[in-house]
Write a structure and sequence with these properties.
By secondary structure, this protein is α+β, with helices and mostly antiparallel strands. It is built from seven helices and ten strands. Helix 1 crosses helix 3. The radius of gyration is 21 Å and the shape is elongated.
Length: 235
């Protein structure tokens, strides 16, 4: 007999059904009463399992119609500077990173414009694939002004993300976002393990700390695996 709490057993059963496509996106799952009878538990126990999955974005409820499998792409707010490792762990999934490049080089004219520096001066560069349960969900291509973060290249970015490190030493005061739909370059598609025809979302992000431009990054997300969200509140 499983040692897991009964609500977790119900939850695992539903998740297994979604992952095996026994319950398909847009399809309705069994009712709380049916699941309560199947697992011989109270409806309150089933309700807790379903509520957790609704909160995680795996299910969606419609009043008077039932509970359905949601299109559960991971969602990120582009307005917040959030650590992607924490986002993934908050969804109950495993985070990992693949470090492709971690180097010092001379700034090209394009990079110089991005960082507001002179062409040819030294900059730090990292290229990192962020994975959720072993699946690439973000390609981070980042340039850093070494005068502002001299120990950047000394970090182990398989343990701490660039975002996590930079915000710990240079708290963000200002941020600029530009978002576009793109087709990633062939080498980027290879790193993201997607077809070259896969549409992607790309965030171009620059961050300042105390009026100093610290970082410029291109964050590329496979369109089929991620979505971005913005919430606005008006008084």
């Amino acid at each position: 007999m499983s040692s897991k709490p009964r609500f977790q057993q119900v939850k695992d059963f539903i998740v297994s059904g979604i992952e095996s496509q026994r319950y398909v996106v847009g399809g309705r799952i069994p009712t709380e009463m049916q699941l309560a009878q199947q697992f011989q538990v109270s409806r309150m126990t089933v309700h807790k399992a379903i509520r957790d999955l609704v909160n995680e974005g795996r299910l969606v409820r419609y009043q008077g119609q039932g509970t359905f499998v949601n299109d559960a792409k991971p969602t990120s707010s582009f307005q917040d500077i959030r650590n992607i490792a924490e986002e993934i762990k908050a969804r109950g999934h495993k985070y990992s990173a693949r470090i492709v490049k971690q180097e010092q080089l001379c700034a090209s004219s394009n990079v110089a414009v991005q960082l507001g520096i002179k062409t040819g001066v030294a900059v730090f560069h990292t290229l990192i694939v962020h994975l959720e349960d072993g699946v690439p969900v973000q390609l981070e291509d980042r340039y850093i002004n070494p005068l502002l973060a001299p120990e950047y290249l000394d970090q182990d970015f398989s343990v701490v993300t660039p975002n996590q490190y930079l915000t710990s030493v240079y708290p963000v005061s200002d941020v600029e976002h530009i978002i576009e739909a793109v087709l990633a370059a062939p080498d980027q598609c290879e790193l993201l393990e997607i077809n070259i025809s896969e549409p992607c979302l790309r965030i171009y992000r620059r961050t300042w700390s105390r009026q100093q431009l610290v970082s410029s990054a291109h964050l590329t997300y496979p369109g089929s695996r991620y979505r971005l969200q913005s919430d606005s509140h008006f008084s």
